[in-house]
Amino acid sequence: MTTTDLTWNTALLYPAPDSQLLESELASFETMAADFRDRYFEKTAELEPDVILSAVQEYEAMQVKMSKAFCYAHLLFADDSGNGMYLALSQRCSELGNRLSQNLLFFELELMNLPDSLFETICALPEAGKYVHFLTGIRKYHPFTLKENEERLITRKELTGMRAFVKLFDELSASFSYRMELDGEEQDFTGEELLSLLHHTSPDVRFRAFTTFLEKHRDNGIVYNAVFNNMALDHGQEMELRGYTSPIQPTNIGNEIPDEAVEHLMAVTEANFGLAQEYFRLKAKMLGMERIRNTDVYAPVVESERKYTFDEAREMVVASYAAYDPELGRIVAAFFDERRVDVMPRTGKSGGAFAMGISPEAPPFLLLNFTGTLRDLATIAHEAGHGLHFVLAQKQSMLNYHAPLPLAETASVFGEMLLTRELLDKEHDPVVRRSLLCAKIEDIIATTFRQTVLTRFELRLHAERKNGLLSSDRIGEIWLEENGRLFGDAVEMIPAYTWGWSYISHFIHSRFYCYSYTFAELLVLALFQKYREEGESFKPGYRQLLESGGALSPADTARLAGIDITAGDFWQKGYDFLGGLIEELKATI
Ligand SMILES: [Zn+2]
């Protein structure tokens, strides 16, 4: 097998989708959950504090087992959604998972409703230490939770409600194949391949690729419009039922970041849109254009379209982690050596890239769609960062395993910074250095400014859906307005961009997730700045930050590395750093 055929060795989890082991585990889950329910349902509040704590530990052990089986099914489905056996297993696990969460739902609700005095006694138990963040985390939704039977109904109806729309969105988007002329001949493309043509040297190819991509979405506009309208309506109704005051509030509570802090982060970002516009004007100059279009935002600034083989890419990524810390390099290399990476794009395989952390006891996996660009190199560094985070956080137990959302991107973005530095150190050609600098600046623009635009769009979409059904024209208008604030008069948006909202799966999969990227990127800029200033003494704190997984709140986790996210000038620091990069770039033009 050549390394470009590198696919997952899912046998690290189970021998096969029809194996006895998987079958017996899946079959045991319902009995396990029923038994747990028998012993604790409507009894939690009457139990002794130490018995409640041991129930929490038992609950955690079930999550470890279930996560392994369900993640395995998800990996197979992501590997080939056209495989009947994988599809059936994925469907079965999704239905089983739904039944299990219905049966186990009571437990977190009962923990949430414990009398304060009992709750405090549990938290004060010597063995409770590591569960305090989890326990207080459950109670943060307390004011917004309904009665158990109502919660059960919502969970049950979700399967044919919002989750059905999510599935429809995914299946439709994955089914597309596109035709476009390239190099003089009509060719078939996947969506990923078309989007990667936004990095092509020809403005015409970039324009046609994105237009072709968006027009396919326009042709299926009835479905996308229905999915977006229903998603916003469904969310709005749930907010009303639960008594939230804004659609973003549950996300912020989940992130443990106050609404005002998020609004502040976005406002500081919007106040710095001028930096992006300044860069876009520089980009026009570098490309020899009067003004760029939004299809030129990711255009390469050097003549040659440098391609990397996967082996080159892998070596560079591993080397960049190893240069920071040899042990981190070894952890990253193990993903490739143990075949926990699926590399090449294929029909039926999930688009994009992801890292899947399963549990403290099972190895994490990465999915890539490698096409050989510099961008793909950064994606490997990014996903490897997630993978590394999942490995280091295995020090924690399951309920503390996953980093809170705003910190979930820390290791990935930091890893991209390490790669950029490694590339800049090794590259002596000034033109290529300029292109690297551009890539980093563009990346920062994409992870800060753009994510804030997406979040602002989302807020407006949800707010307007309250007043009635939104036409695709109206959604497109809001979309163009919010993007227009970022682009100003520095960038012209192509006509088909009115459909630019329709393919962004975050809007469907994880509402308001996008500002977490802004948070993470700025946090990393600050961390990286600190690393440059402090060198070796920075490393133990950063490692502790990663190892703490989800054991602490974002503010407390960042504090491990000496960062105070509540400090007034914290966010602006990140943009000052970006301003510095732009000045550095100017000097090369
Ligand atoms: Zn990521």
Walk me through what this model shows:
It is a single chain. The protein is mainly α and 589 residues long. Helices cover 64% and strands 4% of the residues. The protein contains 26 helices and 7 strands. The chain has a 3-stranded mixed β-sheet, with helices on both faces. Strands 1-2 form a two-stranded antiparallel sheet. Strand 5 (354-356) and strand 6 (365-367) form a beta hairpin. Helix 7 (162-175) runs antiparallel to helix 10 (221-242). The longest helix is centred in the N-terminal third of the chain and has 31 residues, at 49-79. It starts with 19 loop residues before the first helix and ends with a helix. The structure holds zinc ion.
Mean pLDDT: 92
CATH topology (fold) name of the largest domain:
Neurolysin, domain 3
Let me know the CATH homologous superfamily of the largest domain: Oligoendopeptidase f, C-terminal domain
N-end to C-end Cα span: 45 Å
- What is the CATH top level name of the largest domain? Mainly Alpha
Count of helix runs? 26
Instruction: Give me the CATH architecture of the largest domain, please.
Output: Orthogonal Bundle
Regarding quaternary structure, how should these chains be classified? single chain
Which residue ranges are poorly predicted, with pLDDT under 50 across at least 5 consecutive positions? none
